[in-house]
Amino acid sequence: MGRVDVMLNQEIGMAQGGVYHVPVLLQESVDGLNIGVGGCFVDVTFGGGGHSREILSRLDKDGHLFGFDQDADAEQNAAGLDAGEEEGTKRFTFVRSNFRFLKNFLKYYGVEQIDGLLADLGVSSHHFDDSERGFSFRFDGKLDMRMNQRAGRTAADVVNTFGEKELADVFYLYGELKQSRKLASAIVKARQMKSIETIGDFVEVVKPFFRSEREKKDMAKVFQALRIEVNHEMDALRDMLKGATEMLRPGGRLVVITYHSLEDRMVKNLMKTGNVEGHEEKDFFGRVEAPFKLVNRQVIVPSDEEMERNPRSRSAKLRIAEKI
Predict the structure, then answer these.
(1) Closest of 318, 323, 241, 324 to residue 31, by C-alpha
(2) Cα torsion for 266, 165, 184, 70, to the nearest 10°?
(3) Using CA of residue 238, residue 240, residue 242, residue 244, what is the dihedral sign?
(4) Rg, C-alpha atoms of the chain
(5) How far apart are CA 296 and CA 34, in angstroms?
(6) Which residues pair with 323 in a beta bridge?
């Protein structure tokens, strides 16, 4: 049995009697960090702790890992994670925060530079499988979708208060839905009759716009768009990538797993040009000035075996770059 199989058979962040999240591209992403002697690393998407456990298994006593997650359930998964503490050596620190504040919190802990950062931008299976969180159209419940349930507006707030154009933009930009304007119009009309508060309420309004053969796929895009808006995911990703670029030491690695085109484009642009917009800055000789060099020029995707074992890994893309 290989290391991946061992990891997948361990308890990786249990919640409500099930597996919190199966880590995607586990070996490939942690290999990409190029962990050596000592070093300071960051897992900005701790979740169930799968990637963090693998990173810790490769760190020596002088290494340290910071795990970021804004979700209370994820914080529970971090309890007792670091076996090094038994030897009097603390190798892991959990930070209950959105990863957009990466730089501020690292500075708070006295960290000036890091040797590697890993981000798995997928939503944990736990969130999709928890009917109370409102992430999936498979259940009925409150239309919430907040990663951090301590603050911020819910998905219900968005669909009940956004103007028609604002809603259409959300569905078009974040869900890439051609019928975005029709969806927005229907939502505005429906909420005039009664407030849209539950998943069932919302699905009842948008379902008629999807053909039966594409219903699940298009519904998933609608929910994805709302989730991105509720959690300001694109803004948070932009801030995190900027902070990571500033905090990585020369030779440090940036390892990112993306799941849809918008976030993948931002990551690819940053690694090639140094900014998420993809604007190239050139020196006097016309050479592109970028803070990274690509480690994998071809995007890394899960194997057929992994996709069969974990269907939620199918859209994953892994990119790795090294700070110059």
Answers:
(1) 318
(2) 40
(3) negative
(4) 20
(5) 13
(6) 292
87 pLDDT band, cuts 50/70/90, is low
pLDDT in tens, 194-217: 999 999 999 999 999 999 889 889
CA–CA separation, 297 and 145 (whole Å): 35
Beta-carbon-side half-sphere exposure of residue 159 (alpha carbons within 13 Å): 31
> pTM higher than 0.85, yes or no?
yes
Cα 37 versus chain centre, distance: 28
Residue 288 has a CB neighbour count (10 Å cut-off) of 11
pLDDT at 289: 87
Q: How far apart are CA 245 and CA 279, in angstroms?
A: 16
For 129-167, how does the pLDDT look when each residue is reduced to its tens digit (9 = 90+)? Answer: 554 554 566 667 889 889 887 778 999 999 999 999 999
Taking the C-alpha atoms of residue 255 and residue 43, their distance in angstroms, rounded to an integer, is: 10
Contacts of 293 (CB under 8 A, 6+ apart): 321, 322, 324
pLDDT, mean of residues 59-86: 83
Q: Which of 30, 115, 102, 28 is nearest to 64 (CA)?
A: 115
- What structural domains and CATH numbers belong to the chain? 3-125+233-323 (3.40.50.150), 149-230 (1.10.150.170)
Helix residue ranges, H only, the chain:
3-9, 26-32, 50-58, 72-77, 102-108, 125-129, 155-161, 164-175, 180-193, 199-206, 215-230, 233-247, 261-273, 304-309
Residue with tokens 């298009």: 218
Q: Which among 231, 233, 318 has a CA at the least distance from the CA of 30?
A: 318
